[in-house]
Amino acid sequence: MAAYEAAGVTDEWHTPKYIFTALDVLFDLDPAAPTGGPRYAPVRSWITKDEDGLATPWKGCVWLNPPFGHQKQKRMWLSKFFQHGDGIVLVPDRTSAPWFQEYAPRAHRILWVSPKIKFERENGSVGGSPGTGTALLALGDRASDALEWADGVLGFVTKGGI
Question: For residue 74, what is the domain's CATH number?
Answer without folding.
Answer: 3.40.50
